[in-house]
Amino acid sequence: MNTEVIPLTDESFEQEVVACDQPVLVDFYTPDCAPCRQIAPVIDQLSIELKGQVKVCKINAGDNMRSAMRFGITVVPTMIIFVDGTPRASVTGFQKKDRLLAEISRVAG
Questions:
Q1: Distance separating alpha carbons of residues 4 and 101, to the nearest angstrom
Q2: Phi, psi of 86 (to 5 degrees)
Q3: Residues with a known catalytic role
Q4: What distance, in Å, lies between the first and last C-alpha atoms of the chain?
Q5: Is 31 helix (H, G, I), strand (E, B) or coil?
Q6: Residues in contact with 64: Cβ distance below 8 Å, sequence separation at least 6, in sequence order
Q7: C-alpha span between 23 and 25 (Å, rounded)
Q8: CB under 8 Å to 40, separation ≥6 — which residues?
Q9: Where are the alpha helices (DSSP H) in the chain?
Q10: What pLDDT does residue 108 have?
Q11: Less packed terminus of the chain by CB within 10 Å, N or C?
Q12: What domains appear along the chain, each with residue ranges and CATH number?
């Protein structure tokens, strides 16, 4: 499956997320986390379905501690929805696509 997910780093976070003029879903993950691997296909699906409406990104929380600490990430996966550069909602752990879509609609709709 092609994906529209944009990989982030501490260095690219500000430009890709905070300065973005559309809502952004950021998946904070680590490669060795089973629930992170489990939700990855859901994140990929959302990136395709929401293309042009919501930017979908992921960031390795272990390799990018500055961003993880900035947003208080203590559990992975954590998905944060940013609107106008501000975190508006977050969900942790494996989530079904419908739950993520509902949360995106609630804060960015």
A1: 16
A2: -110, 135
A3: 33, 36
A4: 26
A5: coil
A6: 8, 9, 10, 13
A7: 7
A8: 29
A9: 10-13, 34-49, 65-70, 97-108
A10: 86
A11: N
A12: 6-108 (3.40.30.10)
What confidence tens digit (pLDDT) does each residue in 76-106 have?
999 999 999 999 999 999 999 999 999 999 9
pLDDT tens per residue, range 3-16: 799 999 999 999 99
Please count the other Cβ atoms lying within 10 Å of the Cβ belonging to residue 54: 22
* Closest listed residue to residue 26, CA positions, set 52, 54, 59, 49: 59
Residue 68 pLDDT level (bands cut at 50, 70, 90): very high
Does residue 2 surpass a pLDDT of 80?
A: no
Can you read off the two tokens belonging to residue 63? 């390799």
Identify the residue whose tokens are 């499956």. 1
